[in-house]
Amino acid sequence: MKFEGIYTPAITPLTAEGSIDKAAFAEVLEYLVESKVHGIVIGGSTGEYYAHTTQERLELAAQAKDVLQGRLPLVVGTGAIRTEDSVAFAQAAKAIKADALLVGSPPYALPTQQEIARHVLAVDQAAGLPIMLYNYPARMGVSMGPEFFEAVASCKNIVAIKESSGDLAQLHRLACQYPHISLSCGWDDLALEFFAWGAPSWVCAGSNFIPREHVALYEACVIEKDFAKGRRIMAAMMPLMDFLESGKFVQSIKQGCEFNGLRAGGVRAPLQGLEASEKEALKDVISVLKRTVAQITEGA
After folding, report:
1. What is 5-297's CATH superfamily?
2. CA atoms of 140 and 142, how far apart (whole Å)
3. Under a CB-based contact definition with an 8 Å cutoff, are residues 218 and 5 in contact?
4. How much helix, strand and coil, in percent to the nearest 5, is found in the chain?
5. Could you tell me the sign of the dihedral formed by the alpha carbons of 226, 228, 234, 236, in that order?
6. pLDDT tens digit string along 187-202?
């Protein structure tokens, strides 16, 4: 499997009572298909996997497969503290015929490089599906380094990595030392740099509600090779990226979806929703972004 284009880590809509709104979830997926993103990720942090029960995670993945019906690749996240749980999620993904797995380091446990490798290899053995690694040391507590990559070098199913360290030196190392592993941008405000270093994909939460603008940046940099245009689009997107990193990331993504008429619902505790002033600020940022990117892509 080749990871190319915009992969959206889909939100998980909630009802007023806090349960998963499966009808609204189906609507989100249909919206993303219609918006021409290139793939869907279920069970990522944007989807609030950490706040879901095991059964909820299994049901969401199965529903996503049923709704998508092969129209877009489906990537299932296996994030968990215990390797046994990640293995179980991988086996379930195989059972529903998911297209690939997202596999990160177990959070909180602070495993060594060899222990991360054994975790990844156990997940691979359980499913035999293409793997996108997920390197996010700010959430996991550890980073995937040279010793890890050496330990998993024989694993043919590792085909990509969502690099979310925010470390440009790490990006450079991956591009130069591991060219067989496809880069995927996992740090939004470095998207332009990722594309410049050959990344063919971007896993971006903002594409839940402004998918066309994210696709526009991908197309400018990867398809058209027009980095002058890409810089203009990226500059227009930076205020949104700054807003999303201000401390209420998932809440802002869900609010953006609400602005688009999608039913997103709130977030699960301990997170809390945006204040009224924050909603208005976000609406203004999105409005300016959409207007500016439209002008760029229409040749203005």
Report:
1. Aldolase class I (3.20.20.70)
2. 6
3. yes
4. 55, 15, 35
5. negative
6. 999 999 999 999 999 9
Over residues 169-182, mean pLDDT: 97
Kindly report the number of other CB atoms within 10 A of residue 207's CB atom.
27
User: Which residues, in sequence order, are bridge partners of residue 182?
Assistant: 160
Write out pLDDT tens, residues 90-122: 999 999 999 999 999 999 999 999 999 999 999
What is the residue type of 97?
A: K
Q: What is the mean pLDDT of residues 242-267?
A: 96
Query: Among the options 134, 136, 229, 248, which is catalytic?
Result: 134
Query: For residue 72, is pLDDT > 70?
Result: yes
* Residue 269 burial (CB count, 10 A): 8
Residue 232: which of 163, 293, 191 has the closest Cα? 293
pLDDT of residue 300: 52
pTM above 0.85, yes or no: yes
Active site residue 2: no
How far is residue 108's CA from residue 111's CA, in Å, rounded to a whole number?
9
Residue-averaged pLDDT of the chain: 97
Instruction: Give the DSSP letter of residue 238.
Output: H
For residue 299, is pLDDT > 80?
Answer: no
Instruction: Give the integer Cα–Cα distance in Å for 202 and 292.
Output: 21
C-beta of residue 49 within 8 angstroms of C-beta of residue 87: no
**pLDDT confidence of residue 246:** 87
Q: Find, among 78, 25, 17, 19, the residue nearest to 208 by Cα.
A: 25
Q: Which residue bears the tokens 């209420």?
A: 248
Q: Which of 162, 229, 248, 254 is catalytic?
A: 162
Task: Please say whether the beta carbons of 7 and 188 come within 8 A.
Answer: no
| Catalytic residue list contains 134 | yes
User: What is the DSSP code (8-state) at residue 75?
Assistant: E
Residue 192 token pair: 């332009």
Residue pointed to by tokens 């405000």? 189
Residues 130/159, Cβ–Cβ less than 8 Å: yes
List beta partners, residue 201. 5, 184
Token digits of residue 142: 């550890």
